[in-house]
Every structure is written in C-alpha cells, then in structure tokens.
Design a protein that fits this description.
By secondary structure, the chain is of the alpha+beta class. The protein is built from 3 helices and 6 strands. The longest helix has 17 residues. The C terminus is likely disordered.
Length: 175
C-alpha cells in the first residue's frame, strides 16, 4: 500500500524571495496547545495570549530572525495556543525585483521557505522538542486591502479563540 501523495503547499514557479508581503501560518505538531493560553476578555482587558515557555521561545526566535535574514521584516504576529500567524515582508529581492512579478518567472531565491525552515529548526533546537507540524500555510499579499484584512485577522485572532475547533474550556495543554 502506498502513502497518499502530498499536495504541494507553495505556488508553483513563484519566487518566494520576491519583494513583497506574505502571510504565514505555522501550526504546532498535532495542533497541540503548547504555545500558551488566551487570557482576558473583560471590558477593560482584551483577549490576548499568555505565552508558555515554548511560546516565549517562539516569540524570541521570531523577533531574532532579522539577524539571519536582514532583508526580511516581521510586521505583525500573534502566537496562538497551537499556531503562529505573521506578516513578513521581503524588503529587497535578488535583483531589485518588482512587487508584482509574473508567477511564471522562475528564480533560485526561496527566501520565505528558508526563513520558515530556519525558524522551525531554531525553535525546536532551543525547546529540545519537535514543536511544529510538517509544512505551513502561506498567502502572497496582493494589495493594501489584502494586507489590512490580514492585519485585522491577526489582531482579532485571540478574541476568536473560543470558536476555534481546537479550543477546550477545561484548561490549556502546556509542555
């Protein structure tokens, strides 16, 4: 019996090193709630994530990634109990590329996949355990409206946690 064929996650023939903004979601291994818990929600206390020790590692590593990738900028992120969402901007392409290249152009630079791979590897190494599921979700941000919609989604994500399919009210899992 053969294993099912995995669907490719990336847009074929797109250069993920192209100058522009990208929305990335990476889920925890088995979607376990290892990065923290959502707290707050009162009138004067908006819902927010209180990070676990593993969540603190993810935050610290995400914020340090520009040391390894100086042409990238994290513009917005949220660490949820079982995943991380962020907007990353490639500020300089391999040859001053435009923001809107043809998806059929093929270039060797794959900055975003390398960035995600490094982030996963470094957080796993620091935590001493495998934190992440295989793969990740990416979305190429196409215009200002798309960017603003994703920014708002990231902002509102902690408040929507009680409606998440992985939410449980009997306490959060921590490593």
């Amino acid at each position: 019996m053969s294993l099912p064929k995995r669907k490719p996650n990336r847009l074929p023939r797109f250069d993920y090193g192209t100058v522009g903004a990208y929305f990335i979601t990476i889920c925890a291994r088995e979607k376990k709630k290892v990065f923290g818990r959502v707290v707050g929600g009162g009138v004067l206390d908006a819902p927010r994530v209180s990070p676990s020790p593993h969540g603190e590692i993810v935050i610290a590593q995400l914020e340090a990634m520009t040391n390894f990738y100086p042409d990238l900028q994290i513009e917005k992120y949220v660490v949820m109990p079982n995943r991380i969402h962020f907007i990353v901007v490639v500020t300089q392409g391999p040859s001053g590329a435009s923001r809107t290249p043809s998806p059929t152009e093929v270039r060797a630079n794959q900055t975003i996949p390398a960035f995600v791979s490094t982030l996963k590897r470094m957080t796993n190494r620091t935590a001493g355990v495998q934190l992440w599921q295989r793969g990740y979700y990416d979305h190429i941000i196409r215009d200002q409206l798309d960017y603003d919609t994703i920014w708002q989604y990231i902002d509102e994500n902690p408040a929507k946690w009680p409606h998440d399919q992985f939410y449980t009210s009997d306490g959060e899992e921590h490593p």
